[in-house]
């Protein structure tokens, strides 16, 4: 009986909580259950969800990428500086920003796959390096249109309007970035569940040695997972720059824990018991709904971290309690 | 010294797993000073019964009575406290590899609440030496456990149990990973335990061990106790009949196959201290058996030939072309596939379904533009399940719920429709019941008749004689002797496998 209850909690817990939270806020707040508010929520979670997709991919191959937060930070300032300092066209801006994410992913893979440093430690170190790099690159300044340099000169460029559309534009009242996100979630979901590459990733994460002996090039799979993780963090960074219209220092650091929380809430969604992108999306929505509702209830913004932390702890508790139980 | 001998009775034990009955009113009795063999095909319920006894599972019905007092242990710790211990096949899980032998032997004493805060290393070493002496084994107690061989680790584990006050010890296939001479040592220890009044439950697949070492035998089939009796009143055929529920005729189905041209030719393989100098040839249609005792370098050689480990020196030719393998994927591309010894860890994915396991090596063939065709995956799955007689409720069944023999069939089956030409088996019959064993030999025979090459590593000498077209003896990382089919006897094999220095005869 108790086991059954736990399994039910595991399977539908996250979904029930989301419905409960939405019901609660709808009852309490007159403007909560409106199309525009839901569009807002969707808009507010896009960046963190892109980052969370990357974390999901690294978790699937039984790794962990802590460097995603600083990858967001560095790609944000790189994207902004390319336009504001160097007046580059949008296509170049996006390509180089994505490339930065790929390079960070490759660096992670080098440390983890080649030098065999444990994933948490390697990506922790890379997190620091990248974080330092982005501050060094900007000399600690935020990058905004026609910013003034310490020597009195002004930056030549400003943010491109096409670029700004990525993060600020709307379509039928829905943020353009949210549409991008939905497409990405669907594509990644299909990739993971229906293609041989997705299968190979899950199998690698499930039992790397057996995967290797079955002819899967495990090192390649893990490398690509970290590269993909860097790439999705870079997309998050680009959207961040576009959303705020400037290059903010340390933009990504709060995103790491939020992304991790979303992924672990997603672990248990519909009883998957493994990292999966639909679950990650649901986890993100849960956090987004909570923050949105609490904000509308005039809760101070610094209490949000408490809420997010509690959500993460609950998700971890349910996930690991049930997972460990099913093993014995 | 003796009070009354320890007596433990299990009465009418029932256990269901998700509605599927695993045990149905099983009675089982052990008493001190007895070795009680527990036999049964994989999936017959032996492990479940023993897990209930050792407190890992709780029975759904029935009673356990120890010396007339109902016993309500509900955890392995409770069971240990009442003197019931279990030696699992995976001895590594029960030892701490970073600690010394002495520390491992005394581990439970260190962990007990009554132990002193301060530890005197010299005293601990002396005490553990004493315990090991009782077992009649000599191991340097200062050595780290991670440096020991599997057989030595098992002895350390036994010593550790003996250091506590054990009344009943369950041995789960303790001899499966041991070589013949190591098994001898093991049985000496077992008899020593028996005479000191310990009740021993002995799970095994080797019937000869049962008949020559055990007092009582219980046979289980389909979750029931189908036979209990004295070993003096029974024989191999009788036991096998009870296990299978039918008569068992041929143990080694061997098909004569024309042998073709040379496929694999490896010369001068060397890696570390385990593989010193190995030359081996396999022709198409030929079954080459490499026999060797545990520690002879069989697994290590297999891992080199399958590209799992790099070789330090030597040459591997496949169809005359030199191979340079960095990863198993390279070996597989050249048609060399492996069925590894540690099947749960290396051969199959226990958390995945049967279909997903079987389709893994040929996903590319089953997909269009990278998209897996579920239909093709399912038909492949059911085709192989039928062909190999894998007992599973459906292709969606998780492999962890299958018995050992069926898991092994999956480890083999996943290669059937790949381009594999050379199959490398490492101890494929380890922990597999007799029925599945002969199925596996039949599968190997079929593969050979299709012109595949088979390289079969084993420590079971009789298996080598039974199925091999050629038998190569490996000892200390070197090939010491080669026999043609029909030439070898177990005695000869053992002679060369143990270095040609000491002659031991099989019973």
Automatic annotation (TrEMBL), chain A:
- Keywords recorded for this protein, A-Z: Cell membrane, Membrane, Transmembrane, Transmembrane helix
The UniProt entry lists membrane topology as: Multi-pass membrane protein
Q: Which GO terms describe its cellular component?
A: plasma membrane
Cross-referenced PANTHER family, in alphabetical order? ABC TRANSPORTER PERMEASE PROTEIN YPHD-RELATED-RELATED (PTHR32196), RIBOSE IMPORT PERMEASE PROTEIN RBSC (PTHR32196:SF72)
Molecular function per GO: transmembrane transporter activity
InterPro entries named among the record's database cross-references: ABC_transp_permease (IPR001851)
Q: Where in the cell is it found?
A: Cell membrane
Q: Could you tell me the superkingdom of the organism this chain comes from?
A: Bacteria
Indicate the transmembrane segments per the record: 12-29, 41-61, 68-86, 92-113, 120-137, 171-192, 224-245, 251-270, 277-294, 306-323
Under which name does UniProt file this protein? Sugar ABC transporter permease
UniProtKB/TrEMBL annotation, chain B:
UniProt-listed Gene3D superfamilies: P-loop containing nucleotide triphosphate hydrolases
> Which PROSITE patterns does the record match to this protein?
ABC_TRANSPORTER_1, ABC_TRANSPORTER_2
Q: Cross-referenced SMART domains, in alphabetical order?
A: AAA (SM00382)
For the keyword Electron transport, the answer is no
All copies of domain ABC transporter, residue ranges = 8-247, 257-501
| Record's GO cellular component terms | plasma membrane
Mind listing the GO molecular function terms for this protein?
ATP binding; ATP hydrolysis activity
Source taxon at top rank: Bacteria
Entry membrane topology: Peripheral membrane protein
Q: How does it assemble?
A: The complex is composed of two ATP-binding proteins (LsrA), two transmembrane proteins (LsrC and LsrD) and a solute-binding protein (LsrB).
Instruction: Show the PANTHER family listed in the entry.
Output: AUTOINDUCER 2 IMPORT ATP-BINDING PROTEIN LSRA (PTHR43790:SF2), CARBOHYDRATE TRANSPORT ATP-BINDING PROTEIN MG119-RELATED (PTHR43790)
Briefly state the protein's biological role.
Answer: Part of the ABC transporter complex LsrABCD involved in autoinducer 2 (AI-2) import. Responsible for energy coupling to the transport system.
What family does the database annotate?
A: Belongs to the ABC transporter superfamily. AI-2 autoinducer porter (TC 3.A.1.2.8) family.
Please give the name of this protein: Autoinducer 2 import ATP-binding protein LsrA
What is the protein's species of origin?
Paenibacillus glacialis
